[in-house]
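User: Fold this, then the next.

Assistant: Folding the first:
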Amino acid sequence: MLLGGEEWAARMQGFKREAWRLETLPWYRVPSEDGDIRDFLAGQRIDPANYSSSYTESLRRLRAEGKSKGRVHIVSRPLTDYLRFEFMYYAVHAAAGDDIRIMDVTDRDNPLAGVQDFWILDNEEVVLMHYQTDGTQISREAYEGDVTQFLEYQRIALAESVPFEEYVKGLDVRT
């Protein structure tokens, strides 16, 4: 079943314990980010100490409610411009409570090669994220089968990744 905007928002707001995502793409095409990416590439940066958004406030609220949100992003170097841009926001999102981890598959086999992006909610519901080759989202689909394979993908991703802050320590993502 495909999930439209309202159905999708209800699921993302209605999870009880954990929302977790696997991100596999080097670039996500989000039209609302176009201007921000241009600014980033022109050298503008956010001030992490003073940055706040509805997303960071939502992360703080979830943590206060005892819920968690996390992700593993599979990357390889050199990082794309989009990943460098995204990492700027990952820093503030991680500080606000998003458990962000990076699985760098540069110079090694990717144990999750071929696995598409997905969200898993409360370890019982999976939403498949469908994208065009340029990273534009096509649709979101509620997976209607056994979620065991996705729990295994999550286990592998967590075991093969490192916390975001550890990954970027000493890494210059500006260039």
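Now the next one, as you asked:
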Amino acid sequence: MKEFWEKRYAAEEYAYGKAPNTFLRTELEHLEPGHALFPAEGEGRNAVYAAQLGWSVEAFDYSNAARQKALRLAKDSQVNLQYQVASIESFPFERKEYDLIALFFVHLPPTLRQQLHTACASALRPGGTLLLEAFHKEQLPLQSGGPKQETLLFSLEDLEADFAALSLGQISRQRVILEEGPYHHGPAETVRIRATKHQ
């Protein structure tokens, strides 16, 4: 899997574009900038956008090519990112210091997905926000992006269980039109979450 992502991100073109995700952009309008974490951030479009709004941003991905392109995008946008090459298993979530954690199209096998979601919930500061958008299981027959294995896709029930420790302000299934580079393009079925950690 690492080889797959290294190859995809090695291309000159940004696989998912340089513009931020629509849901992220809308949600950040209502949040005061603080310390944010973007796990499995890929080429950096969302992390860079948050940094442009004044957030102190950490990000990680296990792809070296992704990190290089994210740092290039940050430089071109005149912002700074703290971007590590790390896996879900190796990243030190236990610091528990984030005002925002943003998970966008992070598709993992169920056990690793649960591990990531539990770690993210724990790493939020009290009052912190978690944002997530990813492909719903009904995305499987569509050609607008995402993995072609149902076990890597999301249901609302799975997400409610994964984030039971948080207060779910929004959890919904959406039919959207993606325009996020060559690999996210067209009608799609997604899930969206906005959750907060109890004070």
